Amino acid sequence: ALRSVDAIQVENPWMLDYARKLNAGRELDLRYAPPGVNADLFRPSERRDVTAWPYILCVGRMEDPRKNIGLLLMAYASLPVAVRERVRLVLAGSSAPPAVFWQRADQLGLRDRVSYIPRPTRDELVRLYQGASVVALPSDEEGLGVVILEAMACAVPVVSTRSGGPDGIIMDGEDGFLVPLDDAAAMAGRLKILLENLSMNIEMGRRARKTIESRYDERVAG
After folding, report:
1. How distant, in Å, are the alpha carbons of 72, 102, 130, 190 from that of 157?
2. Cβ atoms 134, 191 nearer than 8 A
3. What is the largest CA-CA distance in the chain?
4. CA atoms within 13 A on the CB side of 29
5. Rounded distance, CA 83 to CA 65, Å?
6. Phi, psi of 201 (to 5 degrees)
7. Distances, alpha carbon 73 to alpha carbons 13, 77, 106, 155, in Å
8. Alpha carbons 14 and 100: distance in angstroms, whole number
């Protein structure tokens, strides 16, 4: 089908490269046009305080194996004890992590440091983003990563795997961090930086918001 159509619109760089290779030598209207986010709804809190009740936030369908929530648990376990003692891991989404996740959390002695919030309302989700110290996305694959746009719109830095969509959104080291797939140590290292270097955390969050305003606000995206 992709070799026979006259126009293709894609939402991440991986899709763009794939469509180009399939259609090499053929005229085609091929566009990279990821969707936008409501930057009025998803907005920074009036005064962002990453020290009041610090937590790492992950939002998604936790039962989906492609979300690789176990990777985030291992990254959290790899953080220094002093960091884990003051920073919680908060999960939120339409489905809970599978039983094996909680079993592993028990084995690691982290069960009391991990919370799951089922099916947050839109307003609850905005508040969760606004209060987060950092948002983590450990997925094996993402078509886009809407949660990245939502978090960045709230001026919260994101640490994500290079899983497709995130590669085209985050400018590594500028407005967030990208890490290799299935690399708990790399994710832990970037989380640690943002949890310990508060000035970098705040500045990276500001840059993330500017990225949304210039490229991914629904009024300018597409």
Report:
1. 16, 26, 11, 11
2. yes
3. 58
4. 5
5. 27
6. -55, -50
7. 28, 6, 11, 24
8. 31
Rounded Cα distance between 207 and 167, Å, is 16
* pLDDT value, residue 47: 82
List all residues 6 or more positions away from 219 whose beta carbon is below 8 Å from its beta carbon. Answer: 36, 39
DSSP H stretches of helix in the chain: 13-22, 69-78, 81-86, 99-107, 122-131, 146-153, 165-169, 184-196, 198-211
| Residue 202: φ, ψ to 5° | -65, -45
Q: What is the pLDDT of residues 50-94, one digit of tens each?
A: 878 899 999 999 999 999 999 999 999 999 999 999 999 999 999
The residue type of 202 is I
SS3 186: helix
Q: What is the DSSP letter of 98?
A: P
Read off the pLDDT of residues 84-142 as tens digits, 9 standing for 90 and up.
999 999 999 999 999 999 999 999 999 999 999 999 999 999 999 999 999 999 999 99
Q: Can you state the angle between helices 146-153 and 122-131, rounded to 10 degrees?
A: 60
User: pLDDT confidence of 212, banded at 50, 70, 90?
Assistant: very high
Helix (H) or strand (E) holding 158: strand 158-161
For 29, other C-beta atoms within 10 Å of its C-beta total 9
The angle at the Cα of 204, spanning 53 to 157, to the nearest 5 degrees, equals 55
Q: What letter represents residue 142's amino acid?
A: E
Confidence of residue 222 (pLDDT cuts 50, 70, 90): low
